[in-house]
Amino acid sequence: MQLTSYTDYALRVLLYLAMFPEQQVKITEIADFFNISRNHLVKVVHQLGSKGFVKTTRGRGGGLSLQRTPETIRIGEVVRSMENHFNWLECFDPAQQNCRLLPTCGLKHLLAKAGDTYLQMLDAATLADVLSSSAPAGLARIETSAILAPGNAP
């Protein structure tokens, strides 16, 4: 049971935004912090916005913020919103059921139960539950627009 990088990035975005609840955060700032592709992150943020997790504000003072409080965002809800499917094996996909063992194999049922338990555990946790009470050591919010190029110091 493995999450895609798309879901991983979505969870990172939400955690980052939860650490700065009163501020507008830029996509570039998050991409730089996690050292991930800005272009990929734009797609992730768009889906987070369309699913009601993130509020996007355009313009000079714009940026990203959480649409809901961390206490109301369930991790399982985020994972289900970001993942395309939970086909743990090819036999989970009706179009791919070509396994010769399928009529007698109990593995599909075992993995289905395990998957249900996995998602129930994620449903039990909120963003607030997984957010540390204090920011990790060394986490400092960097305003990318405030970074001065060499030689431009005041």
Tell me what you see in this structure.
43% of the residues lie in helices and 5% in strands. The chain is built from six helices and two strands. A two-stranded antiparallel ribbon has the order 1-2. Residues 134-138 and 142-154 have low confidence and may be disordered.
What key attributes describe this structure?
154 residues; mainly alpha; Arc Repressor Mutant, subunit A; two-stranded antiparallel sheet; 6 helices; 2 strands; 5% strand; elongated; disordered C terminus
Low-confidence stretches: 134-138, 142-154
Roughly what percent helix?
A: 40-55%
Q: What amount of the residues lies in strands? A: 5-15%
Q: What global shape is seen?
A: elongated
Number of domains as seen in the coordinates: 1
The first-to-last residue Cα distance is: 52 Å
- H/E series, N to C? HHHEEHHH
Largest sheet descriptor: 2 strands, antiparallel
CATH class: Mainly Alpha
Number of strands: 2
Say what the CATH topology is. Answer: Arc Repressor Mutant, subunit A
Write the layout of secondary structure elements.
Layout: H1 5-19, H2 27-34, H3 38-50, E1 54-57, E2 63-66, H4 75-82, H5 107-124, H6 127-130
Antiparallel strand pairs: 1-2
Helix pairs in contact: 1-3, 1-4, 2-3, 4-5
Protein name: Rrf2 family transcriptional regulator
Keywords: DNA-binding
Organism: Candidatus Methylobacter oryzae
Brief write-up:
This protein is mainly alpha-helical and about 150 residues long.
